[in-house]
Specification:
Elements lengths: L1 H30 L7 H6 L2 E2 L2 E5 L14 H18 L7 E6 L5 H16 L4 E6 L2 H9 L7 E7 L8 E8 L4 E2 L2 H17 L19 E2 L3 H18 L14 E4 L7 H8 L26 H14 L3 E5 L6 E5 L12 E3 L1 H15 L4 E4 L5 H9 L3 E4 L4 H9 L4 E5 L5 E3 L8 H13 L37 E9 L5 H17 L4 E3 L7 E6 L6 E8 L5 E8 L4 H11 L2 H5 L3 E2 L1 H7 L9
Parallel strand pairs: 3-4, 3-5, 4-8, 9-10, 13-14, 13-15
Antiparallel strand pairs: 1-2, 2-6, 5-6, 6-7, 10-11, 11-12, 15-16, 17-21, 17-22, 18-19, 19-20, 20-21
């Protein structure tokens, strides 16, 4: 009997031990699936122009290959540290900081990066920022924590992308901003070289996760305390409201929806200035992103936030993406909102217009640089205020770099909610834009009320300043907007397909008397369409997608049924027949299905 019991115990032990090993192996494989490729391609495939992105986790049984694991992070950490040291004009100790958003793979990738930094510069060079935002990580270079000369920093984030993705954004004090495409390519090439020289061995790897080292310096208070207090002071300075200077937001209810990312700290910023944040949601960091897509542009995210504003009778809501460099707003009616009041989505062209109104008050005649898909109504809005609108390219870094090259430009902004102000070092910071506009709400003499530099008397009712929509009362808005993705067919080159589409588009424009090609096209081609009676306008814009094998078609119309009419004209003009072997027009024909309106325009 005793012998039988011993055998049973042994079998149970083996079963438990085997199960534990299988579980450990499964967790390890979920983080790092082998990928038999060259060392050059291993890192090159991660580069996405100005940053790095890859699949960091196998989830939901999708079977995707992991391309960004702790191994890649370790060698990228070595490469970045090497690059930063080489940029120093004179030999000097360096500190390199690493922050992360709430993604599940963030800690392991961050610690692996820091191990790479330590391998090159020693443990004194390592600064772990913990949960952080992209602007705060950059801010660590511009205004480092006391006693720390931060020469470079990396933010581990994939912005609003799904939970299985992750990436890195790199910053340097020498370049006074984010690394450009050329600099990122240099870091990637260095990582490939180091990987080759060291045979891809990551000695510190501790699956299924890596651990911080006890000798590393930490500044986990950077985001909530140091950077958060910086933002609070900016609100106070902007509001400049005498007796309420410390708490200028008293009497306001402002909700925050940080999408379970790193933006929960923004509640403390607002509360420190006196705001009531009751009704805020998705506040706790959760890398599963269990609720809405953490994207200020996402319709479901905007809808949920509008419903929260209505339920809480809030004055405003702030939507942040996981790393807080993008923002969207929702305007509310406050406690005195009438029954049936509908909150207003303040994003895309509306958000750019609000920012432009403030900038053009403070910097008359400024150029406002935006991406290529902003509206004609926005151009007229900027022009009426004496500004110049430069519609540039898609890609927030491209927009910022163009703005930096223009001495009279004080604002660079994308429809996606990326915004960068000259006064803030052209740091891409969604929270900064939010506090700029919140400050206008709190100030008794602001651009909202026509006061300040406009020389108009202060209002008798300070509450009038709470309605941000007053900033854009004269913004001409389209009746319809659509973005249609024409997938490049398998086996076709995106560049060649785009060229054929653009040539076909030029032909259609040339044979239509009410269609005219825009004079300045920095990206793809954009044509303006005049309605027959000349009362309403619309436009179409074809461009290659930044990241996907897609030719994007963006349309806008001030006429009901105008987009269907314009798409009908494209098809009637032969575009589908001329390019259907290279791009798939099914998304266009699907849009037309069931829609009424004239066949062509």
């Amino acid at each position: 009997m005793a012998r039988s019991q011993r055998k049973s115990r042994a079998a149970l032990f083996l079963l438990a031990h085997t199960s534990a090993l299988l579980l450990l192996r499964q967790r390890a494989l979920s983080f790092s699936v082998p990928s038999p490729i060259s060392s050059v391609e291993r890192f090159k495939r991660l580069q996405n122009q100005f940053d790095l992105r890859g699949t960091a986790l196998v989830s939901n049984g999708k079977g995707k290959m992991v391309t960004l694991s702790p191994t890649e992070a370790f060698f990228l950490g070595q490469a970045f540290a090497t690059w930063v040291v080489r940029q120093q004009q004179a030999p000097a100790p360096v500190t390199i900081a690493v922050g992360r958003d709430s993604r599940l793979t963030g800690p392991a990738l961050s610690y692996s990066l820091l191990e790479g930094v330590e391998a090159v510069c020693g443990s004194d060079a390592v600064l772990d920022l913990g949960l952080c935002s992209t602007p705060a990580t950059f801010h660590a270079c511009l205004d480092p924590p006391p006693g720390l000369a931060v020469a470079g920093s990396i933010m581990v984030t994939a912005s609003h992308l799904p939970m299985d993705r992750n990436g890195m954004k790199m910053f340097s004090r020498v370049v006074k901003g984010g690394l450009g495409e050329k600099e990122v390519s240099e870091v990637v090439a260095l990582a490939s070289q180091l990987y080759e020289e060291q045979h891809g061995v990551y000695p510190g790897l501790d699956l299924p996760t890596t651990r911080p080292h006890p000798q590393w310096k930490q500044a986990h208070n950077l985001l909530p305390n140091i950077y958060g207090e910086h933002l609070a002071q900016l609100i106070r300075n902007s509001a400049a409201n005498g007796q309420k200077w410390e708490r200028p937001l008293e009497g306001m209810r402002i909700l925050v929806n940080p999408g379970n990312g790193a933006g929960g700290f923004f509640l403390r910023v607002l509360e420190a200035c006196g705001a009531d944040t009751t009704g805020s949601f998705n506040v706790e960091p959760d890398g599963h992103f269990p609720n809405q897509n953490p994207n200020p542009e996402d319709p479901a995210t905007m809808k949920a936030t509008m419903e929260a504003v209505a339920a809480a009778k809030a004055d405003l809501a702030v939507i942040l993406d996981p790393d807080c460099d993008r923002v969207g707003l929702v305007g509310g009616g406050g406690k005195k909102a009438p029954a049936g009041f509908q909150p207003l989505a303040l994003n895309r062209n509306r958000l750019i217009a609000m920012a432009a109104a403030v900038v053009l008050r403070d910097h008359p005649g400024s150029t406002i640089v935006t991406d290529s898909v902003t509206s004609d109504g926005l151009s007229r809005f900027i022009s009426r205020r004496g500004g110049k609108h430069l519609r540039y390219k898609k890609g927030y870094r491209l927009v910022i770099e163009k703005a930096q090259s223009l001495p009279d430009c004080w604002l660079a902004m994308e429809c996606s909610g990326h915004a960068a102000f000259r006064e803030n070092g052209f740091l891409d910071d969604g929270a900064f834009l939010a506090i700029k506009l919140i400050g206008e709400m709190a100030c008794p003499v602001s651009v909202l009320t026509g006061g300040g530099k406009m020389g108009i008397a202060m209002p008798t009712d300070a509450a009038k300043g709470k309605d941000l929509s007053a900033l854009i009362a004269d913004l001409d808005e389209p009746v319809e907007y659509a973005e249609i993705r024409l997938e490049v067919r398998e086996g076709c080159d995106k560049g060649v397909a785009t060229e054929h589409v653009l040539k076909a588009f030029e032909w259609v424009v040339s044979i239509n008397s009410v269609w005219k090609m825009e004079k300045e096209n920095y990206e793809g081609l954009r044509a303006k369409v005049q309605e027959i009676r000349g009362e309403k306008t619309g436009w179409l814009h074809f461009r290659p997608s930044l990241h996907d094998p897609v030719v994007a078609l963006t349309c806008e119309s001030e006429l009901d049924g105008g987009i269907a009419a314009m798409l009908g004209t494209l098809i009637d003009g032969g575009m589908l027949d001329a390019t259907n072997d290279m791009v798939d027009w099914s998304s266009c024909t699907e849009y037309l299905r069931g829609r009424r309106g004239p066949r062509s325009l």
